[in-house]
Amino acid sequence: MEQFDFRRMSFYQIWIRSFADGNGDGIGDLYGVYDKLDYIASLGVDGIWFSPIYPSPNADYGYDISDYRNIHPDYGTLDEFRKVLDRAHALGLRVIMDLVINHTSDEHPWFLESRKSRTGPYSDYYIWRDPKWKGESRLPPNNWFSQFEGLAWEYCPEREQYYLHVFAKKQPDLNMDNPRVREEVKGIMRFWLDMGVDGFREDVITYISKHPQLPDGIPFLPIINGQPYYKDGPNLVDYLREFRAVAKEYGALQIGEAPMTPVKTALTYLTGEDRVLDMMIQFDTMGADCFMTEYLHHPFFLPKLKHAFSKWQYALAGKAWNALYLENHDHPRVISRYGSEEFRRESGTMLAAAYIFQQGTPFIYQGQELGMTNIRLGSIEEYEDVATKNAYHSFRRRQTEEKRLRHVHLASRDSARTPVQWNSSPNAGFSDVKPWFSVNPNYPEVNAEKEEADPQSVLHFYRRCLRLRKGSDTLLWGDYREYFPQHPHLYVYERSCGTERILVVCSFSKKEQSWKLPKGYAWEGCTLLLCNYAEEPVPERLRPYEARVLRWGGT
Ligand code: GLC
Ligand code: CA
């Protein structure tokens, strides 16, 4: 079947537990989603990506799946999902699901069987290895750390073997080298595609093929020392090709999450005759205020962000298509990172312009369009995320409690997992009862109702950006070019197509900045398409976090 044109589209990401509670138990659900579909469509997006909504013991909030063909009872039923899907389609919204097949939950029936013995039908579904012995001491098969929770191996007395978990203990890695596991994956894909979903966001898909020898990694590198041996592995493209064949039958979209995959490798998945992925979620743009992980924080450095943006824009130009994002459920809120909470509206709108007008398909994470910011919690016990708790216990142990919590607040995924703030009524209108997780206390000021009422709000600006992008061939397809890459406060990029040139000018500064047009430009003939301030701009002066979209030529 022919594929729809995902390049014109933009997506809204739902992390359901915190989206909207429709049945009054304090947990977001599909009833809540159903009620908000008109709102989502009103943004001008064209699709929804659902983070996992399947049954899960929630060791990693849905990314530990115990049944791939059902809906978590907290969120509803398959019938309710079908209702949401039909209504979304009627509103012109495509729906893509999260396909999490690097690992399952340790409560998935496959794993419950697999752990029983070395000879059962499921015994080879996961990555089991014998211990290493040093005299009398039993050691794990290699020195890898997991990304979430201690070592990457857990001992299982029934088999007298260890299983691999690149993430949490309750997330055993599947053995994708087993053809039966790959058949299972294809079956899962068909199940959802037959129901009518339009594609998948494929979770850490670049991790599914492990180096056959599972060699030791660098001993002192924390968290990702095994990554060279499980990322972009030897059989990855072959396996992806198999999944691609299924997707192709349905014309389904495939977006792969690819932590730390370099551009050059990315191109091998995104180009060529047997392109195995349509788009990739890269991580470079998440690193402008940290080193490798948000827990190794450093002050935000704009040139690093711009370098990441431009690297992907230039490398994929004419060859592949970018997935554009500044937030998702794995990262803190972008205003709190790359913008300023003090200039919430200004920086929230500017950041929208900074990424939506690049070449690619924009993704917006729930609440991002409302200008939501990081929550500050009072103690580590109030956090939910397994990765957060582990990072808290691993990093900066010699610092004061206060400093450590400040880092958690800056770095935690939970900072962006608070309930969506719909209005200023109790619980931010998310639920009638106390929500499952803390609501950001700024909800009386920051909420959808207020944003709707203010024509200059972050919300309205997102709508304007998406509308402008969709109506402009230059913004959709035009060439990208960056100016002043070393400038510490300004991000200036051009999109051009035929005789039309559009310049996007973004100030990342709390102070006024003076600036000049790039060489080859003159103010004459310039039209202002969009600005995040209501008052007329002064041509060569930018207000704090000002964003302007300027046009020359064209029709
Ligand atoms: C991806 C998901 C993240 C999850 C991890 C393990 O990075 O986005 O939320 O914890 O994979 O599944
Ligand atoms: Ca609920």
What would you note in describing this structure?
By secondary structure, this protein is an alpha/beta fold. 28% of the residues lie in helices and 17% in strands. The chain is built from 15 helices and 22 strands. The chain has helices spanning 30-42, 78-90, 109-114, 179-195, 227-230, 236-250, 263-270, 302-316, 334-338, 344-356, 386-394, 401-411, 448-453, 458-470, 473-477; strands at 11-14, 47-50, 94-99, 128-129, 132-134, 137-139, 153-156, 161-164, 199-202, 253-257, 279-281, 290-291, 293-297, 323-324, 361-365, 479-483, 490-497, 500-507, 513-514, 527-531, 541-542, 547-552. The strands form six sheets. The protein has an eight-stranded parallel beta sheet with strand order 11-10-9-3-2-1-15-14, with helices on one face. β10 (253-257), α7 (263-270) and β11 (279-281) form a beta-alpha-beta unit. Bound molecules: alpha-D-glucopyranose and calcium ion. The site of calcium ion has 6 residues, from loops.
Gist?
This protein is 28% helix and 17% strand. It is an alpha/beta fold. The two termini are 36 Å apart.
Describe the SSE topology.
Blueprint lengths: L10 E4 L15 H13 L4 E4 L27 H13 L3 E6 L9 H6 L13 E2 L2 E3 L2 E3 L13 E4 L4 E4 L14 H17 L3 E4 L24 H4 L5 H15 L2 E5 L5 H8 L8 E3 L8 E2 L1 E5 L4 H15 L6 E2 L9 H5 L5 H13 L4 E5 L20 H9 L6 H11 L36 H6 L4 H13 L2 H5 L1 E5 L6 E8 L2 E8 L5 E2 L12 E5 L9 E2 L4 E6 L3
Parallel strand pairs: 1-2, 1-15, 2-3, 3-9, 9-10, 10-11, 14-15
Antiparallel strand pairs: 4-8, 5-6, 7-8, 12-13, 16-17, 17-18, 18-22, 19-21, 20-22
The site of calcium ion (CA) has 6 residues, from loops.
